Each structure stands twice: as structure tokens, then as C-alpha cells.
Amino acid sequence: MGQEAENIFRSFVFDDVAHRDDFDRVLAKLNEYFIPRRNVIHERACFHQRTQRPGEKVETFIRALYELSEHCEFGAARDENTRDRIVVGVLDKEVSRKLQLAKDLTLTLTIETVRQAEEITTQINLQGGAAGGSVNEIKRDRGKYRTPRNKLKDKAQQRQQCGRCGKPGRDAEEMCPARGSTCNSCQKVCHWRKMCRTKKVVREVVTELADQPQSYFLGAVNKMAGENEHWFIKLLIGLTPLEFKIDTGADVKIISEEAYLSITLTPLLQPTHILLDSPGGGGIKCIGRIQSSVTYKGKKYLLTAYDAHGRSVNNLLSREKSVEMKLVRIIEEAIHQQVRPCGGPFGDYGTLKTEPVKIELKENVAPYAVFTARRVPLPMLPKVKEELQRMEKTE
């Protein structure tokens, strides 16, 4: 062990000189010298303050409690204290409440209950993820939108205006200032140009099409564990490198709120009416749209991306931009085969080039019949039914 250990060994005081040759007694002295005395109060405080952390598995939490209780000197009450700490410190408060109401609760029953609850929660989350889909898919949805409330108010105000002159209220026809006037748009009488119905119809259609928000459907935009890193690239926006995922199913580019805030020279965030909806029904709020120059392998590209609200959203690179940056390639390959006048793509067709085949049938052969297998033969069906009815009556 070295000269220092020899000096420490010579400093030990034993009750009997013969104890210097006893291995167990020497080891106990060494442990007493090197291992400092533990503060039981501090160890118990650490034990009672230990709770299940967010994202921590129940098995890890229970194992940590066992390790902490080892130096608490609970004695026979170690299992009871561990049980109480699991009940109070488990992250699922609904399970904690049920365990507190249970009678004759043991440590084994507590561990089994929290394990089963965690397993059921994991299975439910996996089923929900499978229903939502794991493919990053973005599709346009035309025609589904809600009319803003301010537009409804504008239409209500328009209904209160005079249909001839446009002034508030509805004046009598003989009192309307537009009476006898000729419209400069349609050349008809009794209304002004700003209230012309012909022009209004066209203007309303254009307004509706311009104000109609475009809707996009998003799949799972979170990075899955074990995902292939080859589908992720680094793009330089200004002086800030950001990681984007190549998504050939996306029609638009997506940048997360966290990534946008991390850019050194933040691009201007423009308002937008784009709607991002996931297939599972949960919508993703779109904060705005940005336009910025990005650099990839020494080349610059113009990137228009939509800022999606959320801290765990991946940055997605659309199909169009991936093709433009030559990250993916569209393979258009067709096999053209020459069709001969007397044949098809698989060669000549017609009769077989072989000797004629003659099929001979045996005489006096009965045709083979296939019968459906039944649980009860049809001839015995009435008797079986009668017997079953008799047995029911006897019961």
C-alpha cells in the first residue's frame, strides 16, 4: 500500500498486540481512518427530500431511495420509510392519492402499483403517437377557415348603411341624395359608384380569396430517438448555425421559436395567416414568417420559413428547397422497350410453339363434390335441437 499506509498502520492502537495480525480488525481500523463518519441527520434529510424528477423512471427513483436509505440507520423501519417516500415523492399525484387511501399498504404493493401505472401511461402515450403518425407530412387544406369577427362586424355595419348612397341608416328613397344620380361604374341610376353592386360583388370575391388563411397539416415535428442523422444538416443564418431536418413531405419551411430567438441578427418577423394543424387534431400556432439568406457549403440561398410556436419543434426543410439545394434528387427513370409488330413488351404472343396436347378423361368417373364441414350433420340437426331443448327444460 505504500510507505504512507505503513506509517498510518503503525499509528493504530489495538487492545491486544496480537490484533495487529488480525485481518478483519486491521480492515476495520483502516475503514475508520479513511472513511469519514456519516452525519445520519444529513443522510435522512437527503432521503426525505428525494422525489421523482420529471422524465425519471420509477425504477430509477426507487433504486435511488434504496441507496440513500443505506446510511440512514433506519433499522427495521427501513421498508416503511422507503414505502412512505415512494408514496409522497412519486410524480403521478393521482397514483399517490390512491396509495394514501389504501389500507395495509406494504412496500411490495407500493412498488408494483407505481410500476404498473408507469407502464400503462407509457402504452397510452405510444398509442397516441401511433395515431398521430410519425411521418413529417405537410399538406395544404383549401376552403376550411373561420371568418374573423372583425369581418362579421364590417358586414353588419354595411347592412346598416344605405344601399344607394352609403350613408349610415336607411333614408327614404325620395330623401336619398343618390336619387336620380347615375353610377359612373355601371351607368345605372339611383346609386353612387361606391355602392355599385356590380363592383361590390367582384371586390368581395377578391377580398375573400386574399383574406382566406391557408391551412397546412403537420405531422410529428419532434425529433425521434435513434433518427438517422444523415437527414439533418447545418445551415448558417447570419452568424448562427441552425440544424434543419430534410423533409421531402413538407411543402413549407418551419423554424422553431427557440431557434428563431437564438439567431444573432434576428430577421424581421412578418405577420401571416398560415394555419399549422397536425393530423391528430392538435394545432400548432404560427407566430409569423421570416425571409433570410442562408449559407450551405459556401453557397447562399434565400429561405422563407414560418416560425412555429413551441420549444420542442424541429426546423424542417421543405421538399422544394431540398431539391434546389441538391440535398435530394428526383429520379425519373423509365424503361422503354421496343414493341415489335407481332409481339408485346414480353415477347411474342399467340399459340405455344409445341406439339398439340390432348387431354383424355376416364370413363364412368363420378364428379368430385366438396361438402362444407358442419358441426352437426344436417340429417341429425332436428334430433340435436330437440335434445338441447329437453336439457334446458330439465335445468
Automatic annotation (TrEMBL):
Domain of life: Eukaryota
SUPFAM superfamilies, per the entry: Acid proteases
InterPro entries in the record: Peptidase_aspartic_dom_sf (IPR021109), Retrovirus_Pol_polyprotein (IPR050951)
Name of this chain's protein: LOC107383513-like protein
Organism: Nothobranchius furzeri (Turquoise killifish)
